[in-house]
Design a protein that fits this description.
This protein is of the alpha/beta class. It is built from seven helices and seven strands; from the N terminus they run βααβαββαβααβαβ. Helix content is 47%, strand content 12%. The strands form two sheets. It has a five-stranded parallel beta sheet. Strands 3-4 form a two-stranded antiparallel sheet.
Length: 193
């Protein structure tokens, strides 16, 4: 069962790729890292930490961010895993987000699975994207933040999903690194941890 935060204006779903982009930026790993994407993703997460967004997530986000997030921590030019300290740094970022932050976690239940199956067929999606979208719809999220332009294009090309906007993260104001705000630390987006 999910937990709800009260008094927050905007309920949204944050796709796994948004968290992963911040991990790549904070650890300085990945040749596909884009500083503008990083800044925008960081701001979405900061808005959540500051209480301006009510975030709902499938437990699939937890699995993907740990699995894919750690998999992204390698030097693609050398096909080597990142140094152990880099993986430890990623875990230090991930753990507070998912264990201390007031995300409304949702288990994948039968209704979500069936809706995801239909979305996968209609929009030609992989199962993970379909589960994320079905969860967002089931939980009545109005916004779905993602960096996946292909996903946005497929949904828009298929007629869209009623009452759900798929958006790229956008600049929103002052930056605070998520989870660090819990400890009172303010960091610039590109400052090393």
């Amino acid at each position: 069962m999910s937990r709800r935060r009260g008094g927050v204006a905007q309920r949204c779903y944050i796709d796994s790729c948004v968290y992963i982009e911040v991990i790549k930026g904070r650890t300085g790993v990945g040749i596909d890292h884009d500083e503008q994407d990083y800044d925008r993703c960081l701001q979405v997460l900061a808005q959540f930490e500051n209480g301006n967004l009510d975030v709902t997530a499938s437990t699939m986000v937890y699995v993907e961010v740990f699995g894919k997030g750690e998999a992204k921590l390698h030097d693609k030019r050398k096909s080597q895993l990142a140094a152990g300290k880099t993986q430890a740094a990623a875990s230090a970022i991930i753990d507070p987000w998912f264990k201390s932050s007031p995300i409304s976690w949702v288990e994948v239940h039968q209704d979500i699975a069936e809706d995801a199956r239909e979305m996968a067929r209609k929009f030609h999606l992989d199962s993970q994207d379909a589960v994320h979208l079905a969860t967002a719809v089931d939980e009545e999220c109005g916004i779905f933040y993602t960096l996946d332009r292909r996903l946005i294009s497929r949904i828009e090309g298929g007629g869209g999903i009623p009452n759900l906007q798929l958006l790229l993260p956008v600049a929103m104001g002052q930056l605070t690194i998520p989870s660090q705000a819990l400890h009172g630390e303010k960091l610039s987006p590109l400052e090393p941890s």
